[in-house]
Amino acid sequence: MTAFFEGLGSLFTDFLFIPLDFFRRLELINWWTANIITWIFIIICCGAFVYWMKQLKIYKENNDDVQDTTAHSFLGKNTQG
What we know:
It contains 5 helices and no strands. The chain is mainly α.
C-alpha cells in the first residue's frame, strides 16, 4: 500500500506539476505573463456573468420569472404547527 501512495506522489510531483513549475519560474521573470491563465479565467467568468444577467433581464421583461416565495412547497409551510 505504501508503494501505491509513493507512486501517486511521484506522479504528481514528477509529471503533473511540470506546468505549474514552469509558471513558478516564469513568475520570477514576469508576473503578468505567469498569471495569464488566471486573467483568461477572470475574463471568461466576467463574460458569463454579463450573459447570465442579460438572460435574467429577458425573463423578467417577458414575465417568465416566478418570484413567488411559495414557488417551493417547503418555503410556504408553517413549522410552528
